[in-house]
Amino acid sequence: MLVAVLALVVVAVAVAGTLRGVAGQPAVPPAAVGRPGDVLLVPGYGGSTTALDELAGRIATAGSGFHATVVRLAGDGTGDLQVQANVLNGYVNQALARGSGPVTVIGYSAGGVVAWLWDVEYDGVAKARRIITLGSPLHGADLAAVGAADAPGACPPACEELVPGSSMLHRLQGTGPASRPPWLSLWTTDDQVVQPPDSARLPGAVNVPLQSVCPGLSIGHGQLPTTPLVVGIVLRTLHSTALSSPRPSDCHSLQSLGGGSGG
Questions:
Q1: Which of 100, 233, 241, 261 gives 20 to 30 Å between its CA and that of 127?
Q2: What is the pLDDT of residues 172-193, one digit of tens each?
Q3: Structure pTM?
């Protein structure tokens, strides 16, 4: 009888895994021994990967053992953000199939909104160790609103979706922090692209304006993925078991970790 019961348990587990695969949510395999979860970096509006390629390189060479991959978005990166979330989910599933544990998703600018969409649509809490966003317009950007109003024909789908109050953003904002992975949101008060800069603030996340860590530090939107302070925070976060907000006393050490002079 014991042998029969054990056989039934094995069959039940196999069937459950098969059903999850059929539903488009493949069972998450155990991580390879000694291998941390993969890091997936999602570009912003337009899909340029230059800055994130540099950040991925820093992650890979930091001696952490993390495998970092920059997501290549569909088309020119200005199309429907839901399509981009689908692309991200393909990368996540590939990482999990290779033996990665829960992934870390880093979304830069509009890439953070893509990460949020992915989290909501694809059960991110079951697949992601944490999400980090860099200067992401999680509540929309005034620049998108101006573009949609003044030149609607020149405002692609992603532009329309980033208008504050859009139906897509309204839907995302209706989700609560309990259904999300641990989330770290970083932004710069100097941001001239995402206005207002604290559109990056997300209820329930660890929200960090960078100038609260290094007062007086000048960081533009385009510098976010490569500035030493951000690189240092990302590297420290990848090695941490729990998210925490960096303090002003951490300013120099984080900049040094990220490759700067710490001055």
A1: 233
A2: 999 988 889 999 999 999 999 9
A3: 0.86
Give me the residue label for tokens 């302070």.
Answer: 229
Low-confidence ranges of the chain (pLDDT < 50): 1-27, 33, 261-263
Q: Return the residue matching tokens 């904002």.
A: 173
Query: Over the stretch 39-83, which tens digit does the pLDDT of each residue have?
Result: 999 999 999 999 999 999 999 988 668 899 999 999 999 999 999
**DSSP state, residue 31:** P
The letter for the amino acid at 213 is V
How far, in Å, CA of 84 to CA of 72, rounded?
A: 9
Is the Cα dihedral 201, 158, 44, 29 positive or negative? Answer: positive
Q: What are phi and psi of 39, to 5 degrees?
A: -115, 125
Read off φ and ψ for residue 56, nearest 5 degrees.
Answer: -60, -40
Starting at the earlier edge strand, list the strands of the sheet with 206-209. 68-70, 39-42, 103-108, 128-134, 183-187, 206-209
The pairing of strands 128-134 and 183-187 is parallel
Length of the chain: 263
Contact 185, 200 (CB under 8 A): yes
Handedness of CA 93, 134, 242, 233 (dihedral sign): positive
d(CA 138, CA 141) in angstroms, rounded, equals: 8
Q: What is the mean pLDDT of the chain?
A: 86
Among 113, 142, 108, which residue's Cα sits nearest to residue 221?
Answer: 108
Here the tokens at position 258 are 């990220």
Domains (range + CATH), the chain:
37-240+250-257 (3.40.50.1820)
**Which residues on neighbouring strands pair with residue 187, listed in sequence order?**
209
Q: Which two tokens stand for residue 62?
A: 């930091």
Give the amino acid at 64.
S
